[in-house]
Amino acid sequence: MRTVVAKLAILLAVSCPLVTRGQQATLVDELDVLYPDAFPASEVAHLESDTARGVPAGVHIQVAGLPGKSPVRWKLTLNDAILTEARAFQLIDVPVEQNTGLNSRTEAWDGQKNPHVIRRSPFRVFEALEPMGDIVEASSTGVLAFRLEVPIAAEAEVGPREYVLGLEAGSWRQALRWELNVHPVTVPPTGPQSPGYTNWFSTDVIAQRHGLEPWSEPFWEMLARYVDLMVRGRQNTFWIRWGDFVNVGADASVTLDRRRFLRYVRLFLDRGFTRIEGGHLAHRHQGDWGSPRLDISLTGSDVNSDKGRSELEAILTEVKSVLADLDLPAQTVYLQHLSDEPTDTNAESYKALAEQVRRHIPRVKIFEATTSLALVGAVDHWCPKVQDYQQHRDFFEERKRSGEGVWVYTCLAPGGPWLNRLLDQERLRPVYLGWALIKYDLAGFLHWGLNHYRPGVDPFTHSVVPHGDGPPNFLPAGDSHVVYPGKDAPLSGQRFEAQRIGMEDAELLRLLMEHDRATAETIVARVFRKFDD
Prior knowledge:
The chain folds into 2 domains: 4-186, Sandwich (Immunoglobulin-like), CATH 2.60.40.10; 196-468 and 478-527, Alpha-Beta Barrel (TIM Barrel). It contains 12 helices and 29 strands. Helix 10 (428-439) packs parallel to helix 11, helix 10 (428-439) runs antiparallel to helix 12 (517-527) and helix 11 (494-515) packs antiparallel against helix 12 (517-527).
């Protein structure tokens, strides 16, 4: 297990501007932040780290001082034998154009300076992980950053291993030593016992970014690569956007593409996903947060109108029928969204919608990212933002005692010192999201942004994008995504990997809670106290 001591020691590296001091390379903990224009203050030629079994173990390397565009060759050996199973990923830098706001969005939103950022904007930070071969080219400034990773099998031999990383570029040679302590505990695969974890994703964006015809065979192959990346990140919950499968004709007839739907769901279930989110059935009228009305997403009709109720009945009849066709495994949970982020203003419409849905699909469990506490009786699985959970913890603990589930989420808020997973925040924050699930016995974590890049925006050149009506309303850096569109597959990101590590920790802490709750609580208290501490 990654020791608590090691976790507490993972601090943001103090960096210094790049200077030409001859070729140099340093080992860096995988949760430290690296920049293309700065080099860690301390050059580390020998790094010790810890790992459980059943997970990938990684270390990062930064090289500087090379001639521009120099080809760099690497090899990793263990006991003088080349480690063929090692994988390498070049770290690709992305921009941070504005700093996250003290409370929400960016600092432009309310003009307040946020002191809880890793660096003042604008800057670039290494983030995306692109698979690389045994030779890779340094940047035009002679800088290279990459990740080395070795798989640690569930039955791996316990004890220390000393890997030697050999680097060469031209006449330059350097050897770095990575000592990895493999501990006897094994992280189990994700399953029904695991905390829930979902990142909403866009099938439209997958098709657009990879130049594919939606639902063509090449598209299905690409979608499978995205699903595989989600599995790597320990995501175990996926959503179904009904617009991908349901069509409402001009005559109000409803058809559902059963073949596509069943293939889609099977793609996830066959890879071990255990929770399904039925997508939103309604949305705020004209996007107006001040409107009490909710409209059916597929038709635009008021959910409380006769027309809307009739349309909803037709849609739900198809949904109920195809859900029966799934023949879900006993431990697979189906959750249904109604309308995203319901408020006190539209709470009555939401309750009426919940009543209609339950009438047509009895025993369905309603799951929602909630901003209102006035939905008791309408919601079965609550999902407040982390700061709202902390503020109203007594309310949500009462919901748990009533047999309801409580998840948490983040989005363009909160900023400041709160846990989130934005580009100008420490990479420990996504890790601690996993610890929070265990400390508070929460059912899971939700985020809207796996790959929701804005139209026409290249996530390698823009990380802060206008939101809603535009400036000063911006999404903070990286809020819309934690993976990146590669040429032939999606690329993971450091924040996605950090959250994976946090979910691995959550599995181990969950097991420890079952074995020795007092010790587990003591460990958690040393590391994570509150969502803003």
